[in-house]
Every structure is written in structure tokens, then in C-alpha cells.
Fold:
Amino acid sequence: MSKIIELKKVNKWFDKFQVLKDIDLEVAPQEKIVICGPSGSGKSTLIRCINRLEEHQEGNIVVDGTELSESTKNIEKIRAEVGMVFQQFNLFPHLSILDNCTLAPIWVKKLPKKEAEEIAMKNLTRVQIDDQALKFPGQLSGGQQQRAAIARALCMEPKIMLFDEPTSALDPEMIKEVLDVMVDLAKGGMTMIVVTHEMGFAKEVADYMIFMDEGKIVERARTKEFFEKPKSDRTKLFLSQIL
Amino acid sequence: MKFITKPSKQNIKTFLPTGLVLAFISIFDVFVNAFFNYNLFSFLPSQLSYFLPLILGFTGLYLIRIEFSGYRSLDILNKNINSSNFNALLTLLTVFIIVKSIPPLLNWFILDANFVGNTKEDCTGDGACWVFIKVWFNRFMYGLYPNAEQWRINSAFLILFAVVGVSFFVPTKIKKYFILFLIFVYPFFGIKLISGGSFGLEYVESAAWGGLSLTFIISAFAILFCFPIGVFLALGRRSSLPAIKYISIGFIELWRGVPLITVLFMSAVMFPMFLPDGTFIDKLIRVLIAITLFEAAYMAEVVRGGLQALPKGQYEAARSLGMGYWRMNLLIILPQALKLVIPGIANTLLALVKDTPLIFVVGLMELAGMIGLAKTNPKWLGMAMEGYVFAGLVFWIICYAMSRYSQNLEKQLSTER
Structure:
């Protein structure tokens, strides 16, 4: 099966501090991958390299057949195919939820306004906040905002979705509503890379688990194997603390 | 020994009326003294009668300072202007100063002022000589613009107000055409109408323009152009391209570091020396460019403040949706950043309007300049006070209107309900 994302020997430094060390990663279409690990281990940096919000200094990253490098002119095209959901939602506070969802389709994909609105309403219905479409982000709860952010990313009809700790900034009772949406998305066949500490979610949807520590991929295993027979001691320690 | 019991709810029945009466007498005494020049307590030794209102008022306020009195208005009064002895004293002094200053101001502005007549000799009263403003009013509005052609200035402004007025009531879809017209067509049309020289309109050189209409023309043009230039400079200063970044920094720091009066002088006197022989740029245009670039540097820093206040996540979200630099800035970043700095923008634009009188250094006379000219007219010597009070009032009205508009805009655009 051809890979949609390929990382080979990726290295990255913030000044002198190395955040990513020789990362190799392959993702096939429709695969769901959950990345976990202690804070500061480079999980977020890794997925932010995939849509080039961070630049890597060594190695190759190929997304959907296009190599990301300094000279990538069509980085915007890649980004339009890779949706991203952030820990802090990052909705645009000056626009209504509907406008948040239609802005990029209209201005980046050049869709007619009416079509963009139809797609937006479809996705808002999918995340069950279609009744909030005309409100502003500041009027919604955290869980609703994060679902709106997911809908906004979906409106670009991406091939890949990246989730950067999507539930870490939420109250416990709102986490479930967001995870439900993500499970639904996973079952719909989306390629997903999720950085999260929600192990219940990981067990339910992930094909592969990746455990990172100090900028390295310590362990990569099928989900069942990962939780039942972790190989490295570091993974065992982490799992014993988090489960 | 308790000489006076502390005011409290128990003795409110005696203390409250006594206190109110004392406070009333104190203010009434100052009032009568200020308005009718009559001293109620003239039978007392002079020093005592001088300080009596203060003593009476202070005692009165002390007596009514009752906590949790049960009267809502009394509680509010005590909390706001009578919370301690020191505050009571400040309250009394403030009231006395206001009461004392009303009669002389009233006299000078209206009661003793002169409104009738056509020459300085008609001003026989002690108050202001508004005849001066009346006689020179035309000059204060239009400068040295020929009287017969003044309808052109009037109609230029009438058309502007009409277009702006109508644009408030048309649906949003047509509104943008109004705005485009106002920005790209109207300025050149307006200038052509006022300067003339074609379409059968007599040419009026810009040296003859002046008065309040020139204040408006300069302010409007400078505001119109300094705003976009400032925004570009702000973006440029944060650019990742070193050339653009350092050019922007250099430009901003150069213009911010030089006094406006120097800039104006250079634009009018030194700049022409660098032009090849035979080329000529109108003085007013040179001054306009100078003011625009000067204010643009300030505007850039205000806008940059807004750009820096936005969380990094907004940039990342925009980029993750596939937006390039310009779409990200125009659709996501600037709308939010500009909204944040509306007070700062208003501040800069108000300063711009109030800086226009400085164009006198190059011989252009807007409102304050014309007043300065009129007061040196031999027939009208000694009218500086009237003239500058008038100028102050007009500038205040303009600036206050702008300030109110900016506050309005802030409220309209706020989405954090």
C-alpha cells in the first residue's frame, strides 16, 4: 500500500536543543495513529512538521507525494489538504462559526459562497453544532469551540487530519463530546494523526501507537500489542503512570 | 469626653437635617458671593467670613457622613464624594471653584460680550468681541479663496457629506461601491473641483486655500493615505524578509525621530533644491506628502502593537487552512489587530488633525493660521483671545466627534459579548 505521509531521518533543532532525533514514520491512507509521550518529548513538533508549521532541518518529509522543503512553493496546497486541530482551538474570534468554516473554502479553494455554506452546514451538523452556526466563538463552550474547529478543518475536505492535544484544554465533562466526534471521523475513514493522552480513545480507534521520549520514537506498535506487551521499559513506566 | 457623638443611624434624625442645612448655607453663601457679589456674613470679622463657607460645609458634610443610613441616595453620595474628611474637603473646594468661575466665564462669553457691529470700535462691552469672528468668519472658513468661487468648496463638502450620509442607509452589498468611490474617486474629484483649471472652472492656486476648509482637506488626505501606508509599514517591520524589514524599521525610526515642524520646513524649502530645474511640485502637495509619511510612521507602530497582541495560534490556524501571507493578514490578522488598536488609531488621527496648524511654517494658513493672521491686522489688534478661543472650540468639536465615532466603532465591532 502506498504511503500518504513518509518521514525519513528527520532532525530538528530549536537553537542548540535537538527536539526531533532521527524520526522515521510512515502512514498509509486511512490509518489512524496516536502519538503519546511525556511533555517536551517532541510530539507536537513532530505533527507540526507534517504541515510545515515548523521547519525541519535534516531528513525528508513527503506528504501526499510532495516533498516539504525550503523551496516548496505549493506549501499552501499541501496545507489545504492537511487539516489541523489545535489544543487552544484557535477559532477566529471576529467571525461567526459559519464564517470561520466558509472563509478558507471561499478564499483558498475558490468555492462559490453558497456551496461553501452548504459544506459548512453539513460539517457543523456532523459535529452537532449546526444550531450555533451564527454565533461567535466567544459565545460557545470549550467543547463546542473545539468541535467547531474540527468542522472548520473538515470544510477544506482534507485527506489527512492532525490533532494536537485536542482535549487538553477542556473541562472533563466536555472531553467526551469532542472524542465522540473524533471517533465518528475515524470510523468514516479519515487518515488521522492524533497527539493525545486519552488512552481510551487510542484503544478504540488507533491502528498504531507511537511512544516518544526526548525527541525519539521509543516504540511503535500495533495498538493491542502496545498496551498488552510494551517492549521498552520507558513505555512500561509511562503506561503505568497514565493508565 | 465625647464632645460630638459620631454620626450614626441612632442620631440620624438630628444630624442629617443639620448637616444638610449647614452644607446648603455654605454653598449658598459662595453662590450669592459669586453671582451677586454680596457677602451674607459681612457682619463677621473678614478672615472668619472668608473661611466660613468652608467651615460650615466641612461640618455639614461630617454630620451627614452616616454609614448604612438606609437612604440609598445618601449612601451613594457619601461613598462617592464624602467618604473621608479629606474627600469632603476636596468636594467642597471643587464645588466652590466651579461656582466661583461660572459668573466671570458667563460674563466674558455672553453677558458682557459684543455681537453687534462691524468694526473693533463697536466692541464697547467688557466681554469678548465676537464681532471679530463674525467679520472674519468667511476668511476663517475659506482662507484667501476668492469669494465668488467659494461655492466650489461648499459643494465639494456637501457632496462628501451626502455620499457619506447615504452610505449609512444603503444595503451592505452596495455599500462597498460607496466606500470605493470615497477612497479612489472622490479625493481627486474634490481636489479638481476646488483647484479648478479645467471644465470652465477658474484656477485657484493652493496658496490661496486656507481656513477651516484647508484643515479638512489636509486632515482628510493625510488620514486617507497614512492609514494604508502605516499598515504596510507595520507588516513590513514584522516581515521575515530582511530587506523589507530593515527598510521599514529605517523609515519608521527616521520619521518618528524628526519633529513635524522640521519635516514641513524641509518639504517646502529644501526639497525643491533637489529637484531638477523646471520641475515643480505644488507646495500643498509636498506638505501633504510630508504630513502623510510622518503620521504613517506613528500609525505603523500603533498597528504593530495590535499585531503583536494577537496570539500565535491565529497565525498558525490561518496557515494550517492553506492561507498564504496576504490572505492570512487581510482576512484574519488585520481585522482583529486593527479592532484592538482603534483607540490608538483614533489617538494618532486626532493628533494629526491638531498638528495641521503647523503648516504655517511654510506659509499655508488653515484655521489657526488665518486667526493668527487676522489678529495682526492693524484694525483688529488685541483680538488674540477671541480668535484662539474660537479655534480651540472648533478643533474640540472636530476631535470630540472623531473620538465619539471611534468609540462607536469599537462597540459595533466587538464580538466578545
